[in-house]
Structure prediction request, 295 residues.
Amino acid sequence: LLPLFLFGTFLLLFLFWKGHRFLTFLLAHLFLILTILWPESRVKGPEVTLLDVGQGESLLLRDPRGGEFLVDTGGSYVGSSYVGELLVVTPLPLEGLLLTHLQPDHSGGVFRVMASLRVRRLYLSQRDLLRPEADVLLREAERREIEVVPLEGGERIPFGGAALLVFPLQRRPNPGVTNSDSLVLKVEGWGRRILLTGDAEREREEELLEGGGESLRAEYLKVAHHGSNTSSTAAFLEAVSPRAAFISVGRRNLHGFPSPRVLERLRERGVFTLRTDLRGSLRLTLPQERWVTTR
Prediction:
């Protein structure tokens, strides 16, 4: 579209200079119509982007009508390239920033994000709000006039043409911050369902299955705990029945993630799988279901 615009501008200036007033007027309207109808100029559809944050996790939801919503922020070690990528794709304030749990690889970048972007609402589980780890975060949110919204499970967070459904919290809470304390969410809307599992492990998956496997069904699955074998059991994958899955994982990480067993379970079910360590940031555009990667 840019080359067309530059060529049209040059042609119109040339014709105007030569005195062809009527032809200049006619071509100006033609270029205006082309600009409006050109596919690249149209408002893009909703996007789901799993950002490449190394051995951590951060997922951005974007809706032309509802702005941007960030789930997790990656670790505290994420560099300026992460914030730079966010700034490119989030020209408007973040409507919401949700932390699935307070482990550093999911929430360590929250202060960098709040310092770089305008955040309207911060969502945390009610249990995490009461933890000592949240004290500094809550003070910073208050200083920046960010509304803090506690989540207890069962909430429906509207967002543009979709909604984030919050599954019930873990029934057997642990004294410290653990993987299974993660909030589990499902994005419903845009004609699709996307299950976001945080770091939920086997015991948490079993609880969710007890609540009714049908509620877990989704076309897209964000694989839990970076593809660890402690998650993504055969029974859980059977209930979700995704056709595509994406995994946030660091290159050559020390944990050996993703587990070959998890990858095999996904392969056995014919699930198309993408990983950030191999493909960089993963962006899914809906409803066209078009994947774009940065690597």
Remarks:
- The longest strand covers residues 59-63.
- The radius of gyration is 22 Å.
